[in-house]
Design brief:
Aminopeptidase
């Protein structure tokens, strides 16, 4: 290959190539699910609300006229303030299985981070709330859960480790057979007792309109429940609005649940029908035919994906956790309209020992592992 060269993405042609390159790289990978081109264009043209508060730069890597890699470098001011660090992130780190491609990618991001006064490089990571983080290191045979956790080839981790990166943390995906996913009697009894008291109440949405009405309240819980997690940061109002818009697009109202205490929303379970098959056939496009495919898949899919659940800490001690897990087990089997044969829970940080223990107890098992790496900037 020779030495690859870095290019900053500035032109429309380069932006198209940044979007199209992984489609060629993963052409033979049945596990890869392409993101929507429209979403990618918003990012590359800096219309994503992240760029309202922090800088970033998109790069392509070329060997002659051929693209051999891509990446975006990020210096998230809100993340650094929340966690008391001076780190840069990187994401969309896709590259060929070649030493030169990996080296130029990591060297380019490191230089960019150093120029921005950072001390540590962490990635792949954008925001755990909006995009799945990490390098897939276990579970290569399984398809990605839409855009909620990424797929990559098995050679990636070796390039990271050869470049001096070490593990910072892992994000786990768990699978469960809904028909065998049930709470121990003791926990279900606690949940029943909580329900009987009538102060913690679970609500299901009946329509998109009803879901929109509570979306702001659900969004307001994100920062108190998740912002301090090591993969997250406090989202701005505009970031929360964009996140809510994305979730409302694919959410089925009667699959979403909120937990109220004396009428106030204090917890939530967010689940989505798996549209991965339609997204793969759409190849990133979103025209009338592609939308029809998504709507059809939305009705027929037999898999449910959980990508968010939590309850404010003060209510966990009031039996809220037992109620949360009880409702989770009910959600895996669907509703009066929907029935599922498979369930996946994404982006569970390995540091959440209690949650993982509870999920394993009720019958889930880890089947994919994504690793976020770090390296000091010398």
């Amino acid at each position: 290959m020779g030495n690859a060269q870095a290019e900053i993405v500035t032109t429309a042609k380069q932006r198209r190539e940044f979007i199209d390159y992984p489609k060629r790289l993963y052409r033979e990978a049945s596990q890869w699910v392409p993101p929507f081109d429209l979403d990618m264009r918003k990012l590359i043209t800096r219309k994503h609300p992240y760029f309202e508060h922090s800088p970033g730069e998109f790069f392509l890597f070329k060997s002659g006229d051929r693209t051999v890699g891509r990446v975006v470098a990020l210096a998230n001011d809100l993340y650094n303030e929340e966690h008391g660090v001076k780190c840069a992130h990187f994401y969309f780190a896709d590259f060929e299985d070649d030493e030169s491609a990996g080296r130029i990618l990591f060297d380019t991001v490191t230089k960019w981070a150093r120029d921005h006064g950072m001390e540590t490089l962490i990635g792949p990571l954008f925001s755990g709330a909006t995009m799945g983080g990490g390098v897939l290191v276990e579970g290569f045979e399984h398809r990605a859960a839409m855009n909620m956790m990424v797929f990559n080839y098995d050679y990636y981790a070796g390039h990271y480790e050869a470049a001096g990166f070490s593990k910072r943390f892992d994000l786990l995906s768990l699978t469960a057979d809904p028909h065998g996913f049930q709470l121990p009697d003791r926990i279900e009894s606690i949940a029943d007792m909580v329900r009987s008291r009538g102060r913690l109440v679970v609500s299901q949405m009946k329509s998109k309109r009803a879901l929109r009405q509570v979306a702001d309240e659900i969004g307001a819980l994100y920062n108190p429940t998740l912002a301090d997690h090591t993969e997250n940061y406090p989202l701005t109002d505009n970031e929360l609005a964009a996140l809510k818009s994305d979730l409302l697009m694919i959410a089925k109202p009667d699959l979403e649940k909120v937990i109220r205490y004396d009428g106030e929303i204090v917890g939530y379970i967010l689940s989505f029908p798996d549209l991965s098959d339609a997204m793969q056939r759409n190849r990133g496009k979103l025209g009338p035919i592609q939308i029809l495919r998504l709507l059809t898949e939305n009705k027929k899919t037999r898999k449910i994906i959980f990508n968010g659940m939590g309850i404010l800490e003060k209510y966990q001690r009031l039996g809220g956790n037992a109620l949360l897990y009880s409702e989770l087990t009910k959600s895996t089997t669907g509703s009066e309209k929907y029935s599922f044969d498979d369930a996946e829970m994404c982006q569970v940080n390995e540091s959440t020992d209690l949650m993982l223990k509870d999920l394993l107890t009720v019958g889930a098992s880890v089947f994919k592992r994504h690793r976020v790496y770090e390296r000091a900037i010398s």
